[in-house]
Amino acid sequence: MRSCRKSKDIGRGFKAVLCGSPRTTSGVGITVSERFSDSIVSVERFDDRLMKIVVAAKERLYHFFSAYALQTGCSNQAKYEFWHLLDEKTAEVPLKDVIIVAGDLNGHVGATNDGHSCHGGFGYGSRNVDGERLLDYAESNNLTIVNTAFRKRDSHLISYYSGSTKTQIDFVLVRDRDRSLVTDAKIVPYETVAKMGA
Known about the structure:
Layout: E1 7-11, E2 14-19, E3 28-33, E4 40-47, E5 50-57, E6 60-68, H1 76-91, E7 98-104, H2 129-140, E8 143-145, E9 160-162, E10 165-167, E11 170-175, H3 190-197
Protein name: Endo/exonuclease/phosphatase domain-containing protein
Organism: Heligmosomoides polygyrus
């Protein structure tokens, strides 16, 4: 199976750095402004569900992870392998560097923190097993789920709609100590993005 590991100009001064296999339903990518392309130190593509770009800025290195966790219904072994790889790659980042993990993490972390310091208390819905897995990953790596840290209306929390089902499964995480770097986080409704791209 050929792997799709390339960069692609997507217009308006942006480039998409991609990772995935053409015959699968998974794949990840990171969009980078061309003005930062000379600041990219490295691109690491771990598998179809996880990649990382390292950017040098303001005398620090920023490690941007793009992740696509397995859905509810996939095998526990496959889920374990994904979270183990993400955990391993997160732990490899030097403590002085900044970590940003973003993606479809396919877990419901719930509306309230219920004692989890990584949860800001402003999530959506109820927690599930995959959400617990995400919370465990965040806490063990001293990360904060920043899109639970700001009070938002539901439309800026919900990232997946299917019929009457609404869930929050897309998340951004940063190191606890770098939480102040993030001044806001919200989901941009698809309709807004579609209009912007038209």
